[in-house]
Amino acid sequence: MAQNTSMEEFEALLNESFEMDTPDEGSVVKGKVIAIEAGQAIIDVGYKMEGRVDLKEFANPGETAEIAVGDEVEVFLRSAENARGEAVISREMARREEAWDRLEKAYADDARVDGAIFGRVKGGFTVDLGGAVAFLPGSQVDVRPVRDAGPLMGLKQPFQILKMDRRRGNIVVSRRAILEESRAEQRAEVIANLTEGQAVDGVVKNITEYGAFVDLGGVDGLLHVTDMAWRRVNHPSEILAIGETVKVQVIKINKETHRISLGMKQLQEDPWDLVAAKYPMESTHTGRVTNITDYGAFVELEPGVEGLVHVSEMSWTKKNVHPGKIVSTSQEVEVMVLEIDSAKRRVSLGLKQTMRNPWEVFSETHPEGAVVEGEVKNITEFGLFVGLPGDIDGMVHLSDLSWDERGEDAIQNYRKGDMVQAMVSEVDIEKERISLSIKNVGGDKFAEAVGGVKRGAIITVAVTAIEDGGVEVEFEGMKSFIRRSDLSRDRAEQRPERFSVGDKIDVRVTNVDSKSRRLGLSIKAREIAEEKEAVEQYGSSASGASLGDILGAALKGDDE
């Protein structure tokens, strides 16, 4: 009887064990730590099943596992039994399943999640979100590029989930979104407390070519290079350094874009308030060349006050050269104030006005009629340009090259670099022109030779050449030509060959042509004039006296 009872109890227990629901593989079950050995925790998951889990699965990245015998934990049942008869379990996979449930809810609610960066991968970093591993792109680490992510590794901090796919196991998070949201809140708070015109302290955060960004305590403002000082600033680094604390004035606030424009010079006295009084018209001052352009040079009269010397006001003589050929940057120069426009903050300066006009100086030292010597600088189709004292040029027109030759022929006798003497004919200071004459240096030989000779005069000339058409003669060094028809009143005597070179003959002047520099001479005219005079003095052919009688009486009278 007792034996039957025990068999019934055993059968009941067996049936009870069969009727118990065993956990499904691939699910999360609860278990108790019953022992810790060899870096593993032995966990009883019930149902007469035990499994082992590495202690590192119970710790967050970079932390030590905190687990003890008797602790209840959730694990993931991968398999009910392995080759050693133990359950295959995983704390990490259990945490992952738990984490995915939590993260999906956070993603749906657009809520932040906590995590820690624990590794670096191509294009970014890996983040542990409490059991689930997410990808953090490099561009989403910070609002500015991060060169060294070391200080961020293992640090628990909030992240924003950008995208997740449980089926593929992909999660993408952003740290930058959290920072931008925080900065936006901070910027809004700081901007709300700022007013235009307010003076505040800030720290130079970054320097660029066009200005500097100044941190005003959570919000950055732009300090443009033109608002740093009243003087010209070539680069912000000339007066600012990163990390330097500066006092600035809020110039403008854009409430929509949260952009803030700052200025430093607005807190300083404007030097232009005293410009008109300090720099009266036509006063001269010493300044420093700060910038050179194609159209002139900027000269600093004092810090914050610059004037422009236009290229036309730089030199009396150098008209078509680049300003850089006349002055150089940082050079000290003397300038004259020509015009002031305080409204436009412009000062027009002159460099050449501090020196005397070289045409005036030349006019004083070389009056008209003075002879100068200079080098032929240039030869053109209308004359020569000769270098003169004062770095100026004078022009010798073709018509002023020679008395005896045509200008086109005479100019062939000159070359660039030749030294020549010329007489000053005219100085036009206003037009900056000097007219010279080479032919006048030796005087007008024609004028000197024929100065007392008038038309109708009888002069003696010497035969210098015999030609078919007449004879060439010379008077006081000036050459003239007597045509065949003018050699005699008698046609039979109009023979050039009856004269010899060297013969002295009396001729009558029929014309004095100063333009062509020629004397009109005639033997025939002289003979006719003599005949007319004899008739008037000794008788008339109409009274019955022959011409021979009249001439004979005239000759006899001459002998007496």
TrEMBL record:
It comes from the Bacteria. InterPro entries: NA-bd_OB-fold, Ribos_protein_bS1-like, Ribosomal_bS1, Ribosomal_protein_S1-like, S1_domain. Residues 26-92, 110-176, 197-265, 282-352, 369-439, 456-524 form the S1 motif domain. GO terms for cellular component: cytosolic small ribosomal subunit. SUPFAM superfamilies: Nucleic acid-binding proteins. The keyword RNA-binding applies. Keywords: Repeat, Ribonucleoprotein, Ribosomal protein, RNA-binding. Pfam families: S1 (PF00575). One of its GO terms (biological process) is translation. SMART domains: S1. The keyword Lipid metabolism does not apply. GO terms for molecular function: mRNA binding; structural constituent of ribosome. CDD domains: S1_RPS1_repeat_ec1_hs1, S1_RPS1_repeat_ec2_hs2, S1_RPS1_repeat_ec3. Belongs to the bacterial ribosomal protein bS1 family. Binds mRNA; thus facilitating recognition of the initiation point. It is needed to translate mRNA with a short Shine-Dalgarno (SD) purine-rich sequence. This is 30S ribosomal protein S1.
